[in-house]
Amino acid sequence: MRLMKTILAFLIPVLLATGLPAQIYVAPQGKIHFHSSAPLEDIDAISSEAKCMLNTSTKKVTASVEMQSFVFPKALMQQHFNDTYLESDKYPQAVLEMEIVEAVPFTKDGVYKITLKERLIYME
How many CA atoms lie within 13 A of 11 on its CB side? Predict the structure, then answer.
């Protein structure tokens, strides 16, 4: 979940930058970084293949990422992530569906702080 929220912080300003009313905006290539502190070794990974979509009329936001697109500093970490922990062959994609809580003036240029309410998180 934290993983997908990280990408949204990057993608939503890009999607809103056009300032057009009631449309669907797609950011086809976003970046997600995650970090986990572990007793033996910290775990970091990056994917540059995340996708995000914003519907300004419904205020719904969807983000997705292919699980095997994450690159780790060590090949063994990447193998364990995909084979053991996430079973990426069975669940190749993670999807997060959310909704913007506040009213957002989509037609005005600017930077807006928003709150996202999770609607659905799933692996497919």
Answer: 24
Q: How far apart are CA 36 and CA 31, in angstroms?
A: 17
What is the phi-psi region of residue 48: left when phi exceeds 0, alpha when psi lies from -120 to 50, beta otherwise? alpha
Residue 107, domain extent: 2-123
Tell me the pLDDT of the chain (124 aa) as tens digits: 454 454 445 455 545 454 545 588 888 888 888 898 989 899 999 999 999 999 999 999 999 999 999 999 999 999 999 999 889 999 999 998 999 999 999 888 888 888 999 887 778 7
Neighbours of 73 (CB within 10 A): 12
Q: How many domains does the chain have?
A: 1
State how far Cα 18 lies from the chain centre. 20
3-class secondary-structure state, position 42: coil
Token digits of residue 123: 């692996």
